[in-house]
Amino acid sequence: MNTVKQILAVTALAMGIALPMSSFAQATMDHSKMDMASPSMTDGEVKKVDLEAGKVTIKHGHIMHMDMPGMTMVFTAKDKALLANLKPGNKIRFMVVNEGGKMVVTDIQPAN
């Protein structure tokens, strides 16, 4: 039983040392080296289209150039014409950029 307690104590100490170091590594990561300047197309599925407001709800995968995990969210279209032929359920590839904190879709293509 003493051996188990010793193993648990050593493990707890090791975790106490390792966890702060991993947090430090994340906090000091140089994000300037990430390729934020070249956005890429992201896979998604249209959930809702509001042509009048120029908005589209998309369930999307990971948006790599923004390091954004997959989720469902509402985006504003740069041009309402991008939304003209969209219907809920359409599988798409889309380009999104951050314009002053607002997520703006600049291109939408049907997924192949």
UniProtKB/TrEMBL annotation:
Keyword Signal on entry: yes
Keyword terms of this UniProt record: Signal
Official protein name in the record: Copper-binding protein
Organism: Malikia spinosa
N-terminal signal peptide: 1-25
